């Protein structure tokens, strides 16, 4: 478990829980307090740390544990300390000492008497807007924002807006021999004076993705040029083939998707007005595709990219490790091998995710090669809780009111 969430047995029980356990505060009164003030409960302990108390009411479940998007697993990492029953109540609680600047997605993992696990959001902290994803390991999570976490104001603004209109259509690919949904969202007011719009193609797209609403908040505030958002369906498990530096998938984006979009919408042909964006393997694909096709994509948005990827990387066990070789990751090797491409790159990564070392390596290589690039690190893990909000920074980098 990451030192960002080290358990300290000396952390005191939250005073409200002591009152509930002692009968000085009723169960329903405590439930209503959590609903009104929000969960988890946070108390400052030092300048840079807080005590964070999670409360569950699991019913017949035998054990409750906390699972968070910080740790070695991409997705949910389960803290090995179960919640403690609060005497005389249906509640169970867990208090952990944490860095005060964290933001993270989490769920409660409830283990029933039959040994099955159920992942549920915090009953006192419902998932925020834009929290449903095709992959269950990310979808439907609650989000904890601790007191010193960097603000994500444009995401907060986007969450208050009416959901933007998204037009759906099917793209049939001769290159890949398959078809997928494409969703397109135009900016508020459409295309100003009929001029072609800049646009961002977002991989791992869904019709409920946060990108269109974040775009609307920025456009209305005059922080970016009006731009279209294109959301690309990744066809479930096929994403693990398509997004890992697959030349055929990149060809589909360039030779089929872009012409198909421009036939239907007033979109710019200037690569400086086109961005390819993705998270995790989607970020890897965005970078690799833009670097190999700079005449199509002049901008790439990499959110926690899986830039350690190489198809020949294998891991042995025991004696097998004596034969293991670690090649230079594909994306980094390609940057080093080719002349710099005219691509601007926005790149963010979590300080507490396992791939952060490779992200730092990629940023250093891009910088040394002379790319126009920016790299941000956030206090968290491999987590949509950050990606949703930092996408606003990426749009401002790609499409500022005055073109770079």
What distinguishing features does this structure have?
single chain; 404 residues; alpha/beta; Immunoglobulin-like; Rossmann fold; 2 domains; eight-stranded mixed β-sheet; five-stranded antiparallel β-sheet; 10 helices; 26% helix; disordered N terminus; Esterase-like; Ig-like_fold; Enterochelin esterase; AB_hydrolase_fold
Can you walk through the features of this model?
With 404 residues, the chain is of the alpha/beta class. The chain folds into two domains: 3-146, Immunoglobulin-like; 154-398, 3-Layer(aba) Sandwich (Rossmann fold). Helix content is 26%, strand content 24%. The chain is built from ten helices and 17 strands. It has helices at 15-21, 27-37, 153-158, 211-220, 239-242, 247-264, 281-292, 330-337, 356-368, 384-398, and strands at 41-46, 49-56, 63-68, 77-78, 84-85, 92-99, 103-111, 117-120, 142-145, 167-173, 178-185, 199-202, 228-232, 274-279, 299-303, 344-350, 372-378. The strands form three sheets. Strands 10-11-13-12-14-15-16-17 form an eight-stranded mixed sheet, with helices on both faces. Strands 3, 4, 7, 8 and 9 form a five-stranded antiparallel sheet that branches. α4 links the parallel β12 and β13 (228-232). α4 packs across α10. The longest helix has 18 residues, at 247-264. The radius of gyration is 23 Å and the shape is globular. This is Enterochelin esterase. It comes from Nakamurella alba.
Quick rundown:
By secondary structure, this protein is α/β, with parallel strands linked by helices. Helices cover 26% and strands 24% of the residues.
Mean pLDDT metric:
92
Q: Cα-atom Rg, whole angstroms? A: 23 Å
For the sheet with most strands, the description reads:
8 strands, mixed
Write out the strand line-up for the largest beta sheet, numbering strands in chain order. 10-11-13-12-14-15-16-17
What form results from the Cα inertia axes?
Answer: globular
Instruction: List low-pLDDT spans.
Output: 1-8
Number of strands: 17
Named CATH topology of the largest domain = Rossmann fold
Count up the helices: 10
Estimate nothing, just give the exact number of structural domains.
Answer: 2
Write the CATH architecture name of the largest domain. 3-Layer(aba) Sandwich
DSSP strand content: 15-25%
- H/E topology pattern: HHEEEEEEEEEHEEEHEHHEHEHEHEH
Name the structural class: alpha/beta
CATH class of the largest domain: Alpha Beta
Q: How much helicity do the residues have?
A: 25-40%
CATH superfamily of the largest domain: Alpha/Beta hydrolase fold, catalytic domain
Could you give the distance between the termini? 43 Å
